TrEMBL record:
It comes from Roseivirga pacifica. Pathway: Amino-acid biosynthesis; L-phenylalanine biosynthesis; phenylpyruvate from prephenate: step 1/1. Keywords: Amino-acid biosynthesis, Aromatic amino acid biosynthesis, Lyase, Phenylalanine biosynthesis. It comes from the Bacteria. InterPro entries: Preph_deHydtase (IPR001086). Its EC number is 4.2.1.51. It catalyses: prephenate + H(+) = 3-phenylpyruvate + CO2 + H2O. One of its GO terms (cellular component) is cytoplasm. It holds the Pfam family PDT. GO terms for biological process: L-phenylalanine biosynthetic process. This is prephenate dehydratase.
Length: 178
């Protein structure tokens, strides 16, 4: 049994939280929260790290309700969320036509992008997963909203840092068990 399940791939904010607070646990990445809860229920993982709330965009899915009904809340972690803009090609914000990211990160940067009406936003399963979508897309005028860690780990160009609308943006994560 793997000790911990969390939303992947590497360098999601879940993964950054794991590295900071739970580096000693063996872990496995999952594509979505349903898969994490299923693995916890069937004993594939012993614990799960699950986002429940963001200070600027509110509750994360129905995670808090699911946890309060069926799971043991073991610990709480809060991670400051600093969103960055990255691209595979040299771009400016004005030259970008498409941005990939998790829907929460898109929501948390609405003010920053409010004067760029020409940009199309594409929702991804996670901010780090959006990096893969960007790299597979190969569009010259595309970008990603993600963590600095994910941008740097994938050798993307860092176009802008701290683009979140709320300066003290943070996400609350629960460590849970069955």
């Amino acid at each position: 049994m793997t000790e911990l399940g969390l939303l992947g791939p590497a360098n999601t904010y879940h993964d950054i939280t794991r590295k900071r607070y739970l580096p000693h646990l063996s872990y496995r990445y999952f594509f979505n929260f349903n898969d994490i809860f299923e693995a916890l229920n069937n004993g594939t993982i012993g614990k799960a790290l699950v986002a429940v709330k963001n200070s600027s965009s509110g509750l994360v899915n129905d995670n808090l309700e699911r946890i309060s009904q069926d799971y043991n809340h073991l610990e709480t972690f809060e991670l400051p969320i600093n969103l960055c803009l990255g691209s595979a090609f040299p771009n400016t914000v004005a030259s970008i036509k498409k941005i990939f990211s998790h829907h929460m990160a898109i929501k948390e940067t609405q003010h920053y992008f409010s004067k760029y009406h020409h940009i199309t936003f594409i929702a991804s399963a996670s901010t780090a997963g959006a990096v893969d979508e960007l790299l597979n897309n190969k569009e010259k005028h595309a970008a990603v909203i993600s963590s600095k860690e994910a941008i740097e780990a994938n050798n993307l160009l860092l176009l802008a840092e701290n683009i979140e609308d709320e300066q003290n943006n943070a996400t609350t994560f629960y460590l849970i068990s069955k």
